[in-house]
Structure formats: C-alpha cells, structure tokens
Amino acid sequence: MNSSRNYLTLYESGVLDERIRILDTLLSRCSLCPWECRINRREGEKGICQAGHELTIAKSIPHFGEEPVLTGKDGSGTIFFTHCNLQCQFCQNYQISQQHLGYPVSLEQLALEMISLQQRGCHNINFVSPTHFLPMIIKSLKIAISRGLTLPLVYNSNGYEKAETIKLLEGIIDIYLPDAKYGDERWALELSHAQQYIRYNLTALQEMYRQVGPLKINEEGIAERGLIIRHLVLPHNLSGTEKVLRMIKEHIGTGVHISLMGQYFPTHRAHEREQINRKLTPKEYQKYINLLDYYGFEEGWCQEPDDIREEFVPDFTKQAKWN
C-alpha cells in the first residue's frame, strides 16, 4: 500500500470504520447537509435532494474538463452522483441533479469502478456531488482500498455543506474542490433555493482549508493535496463575485487557488429569467479577472467566455451506463 495517503492509515488503524459508523447513523434522521431534513433514508424516505437509501450514479469517466492540475494528460477519474441538495435554475448538470438521471449501483460496483479508473491511468478519483451519498461512498472506499486503491480523492461539491459533516472526512479527502457560488443571500435563495448559503459555505471552506491547506502540486504538475475554490461568474453580477473574493481573502487568505470560471451558459431554466438568459461578455468577465489582482490572488485559473460553446454543456442522456 501507498502509505503516503492518509486514508490508508485510517483504514489500517480502524478509524475509517468508526467514520463509516458515524456517517451511517446520520441516514436515520438525515442531517448530512444544511437542510437537515431529518427523514429516515434507511426506510426510503426522501428529503430536499430526493436521494433515498439506494446509491445512484449517472456516469464514470476519465474527465478532461477539470482544472489542469486535476486532469493532467490522463484525466481525472470522475464519478457523477445523481441528485443534489441545491436546485440551481442554471445548472448544467440538471439532468442528473434535478431530473435524477442515473441508475443504482452496489457498493462493490462503485469500488470496482474506482479501481478501474485507477487502472486506466487517471490521476485521482473525483466524486462529483457526493454529499448526500457520503455514508455509501466511504463504505465503498473501504472496499476499494482493500483492492489496491491509492489515488488522491477529490471532493467536488457545490459548497452548500455542513462543517460538521466535512470534519468526518478529515484524513480521507486529499483535495477539496468546492464552489463559492454567491456573495448575496438573495440570489442564493432565488436562483438555487439555498437558505443561508454564504454562512454554510464559508464555514465549510474554512474547515476544508484547515484539513488540507494550500494546493500541493507534484513534479508532474498534478495536484496531490489542498483546496481549490471555484467561482462561476454570473451575468449582471448576480453571483456577487467581488463579495466572494473579499470573503475568501479575509477568512482564508490569498494563498488559496481560485478557479474563476467564465463558462456560464444559459441552460435548464435560465431562459425563464432575463438576468441569466445570456452568456457573459468578455468585458464583463475581464472586470472580475482584474479583481483577482486587486485582492492579491496569484494562484489559479481563468477561462475566457468566448471559448465556451453550447456543445460543452454535458448531455448525460447519451451515456447512462459505465463508460
């Protein structure tokens, strides 16, 4: 085993079993995320996210659309989980997050898929929207470790998280990849139906940074550990980009890597709102690139709006089975 992975140490010491036990108890009165629906998912009850007791997946692929330090030359081993605890009107993954496209898999199947992605040369295992399935994922991780998994684990999240839940992942997750979606609670509620998004988001980001610190990149240019914060710029500044950058600077620091995304494309229900029914303009996006310099952020990535085309929006109906 590769002893450099903290999750291997937790596995060998039995601590991973204790984390699994704690996470599993949360399903009886589900409180994994800020909604705290308190429903019994063990009995099939469903809350805001509509996830029950069955682990559901939409796609598993070597993914080349993530940040360069995650994709490298062989891709990020990305597993897309069905359902989401937000209801973003502009979600590009709405087919799986809100229309619930996907199919059930066993813990053993998920573990074998992690191993398959490792064997295919992927640089990491990237869990997309994992929060509502955490007890199942960590159980499956235990199986994958027993079969030889050694890759870094990426927690790819919308950022609407409870710090208490994130604490249970200490030593398990190597790279946190959360969103910081909003700087204004009004738009968090109106566009994503998220209550107190900023409060929950900030405390989660702080806990993630406490655990893994700034990004560590190996000699091959691949991330091994650390925090990357994503922020999608919305038209008309509905994302409150300057407030988000100021918040990160004041509460986490400017040493963190920022992925400032200009890829916004109106999809799902975005056409219903005049404010978000168009792409960003280059001038609009450049304003926020300049803010990165103004607030002292030197590490991260930017993305030009002109590079974004409609065909970049994923269509999960084209492949609903394992790749």
Counting helices, strands and paired strands, the structural category is: alpha/beta
Alpha carbon gyration radius: 19 Å
Helix-residue proportion: 25-40%
Total count of helical runs of at least 4 residues = 11
CATH architecture: Alpha-Beta Barrel
CATH domain fold name? TIM Barrel
What is the string of helix and strand elements? HHEHEHEHEHEHEHHEEHEHE
| Mean pLDDT score | 93
Estimate nothing, just give the exact number of structural domains: 1
**Highest CATH level, the class:** Alpha Beta
Please mark out the parts with pLDDT under 50 across 5 or more consecutive residues, or reply none: 319-323
Shape: globular
Biggest sheet character? 10 strands, mixed
**CATH homology superfamily name:** Aldolase class I
Distance between the termini: 27 Å
* Record field, number of beta strands: 10
How much strand content do the residues show? 15-25%
Structure described in brief:
This protein has 323 residues and is of the alpha/beta class. The protein contains 11 helices and 10 strands.
Q: What features would you describe in this structure?
A:
By secondary structure, the protein is an alpha/beta fold. The protein has one domain: Aldolase class I (TIM Barrel, Alpha-Beta Barrel), CATH 3.20.20.70. About 35% of the residues lie in helices and about 15% in strands. Strands 1, 2, 3, 4, 5, 6, 7, 8, 9 and 10 form a 10-stranded mixed sheet that branches. β8, α10 and β9 form a beta-alpha-beta unit. α2 runs antiparallel to α6, α5 packs across α6 and α10 runs parallel beside α11. It is globular, with a radius of gyration of 19 Å. The two termini are about 25 Å apart. The C terminus is likely disordered.
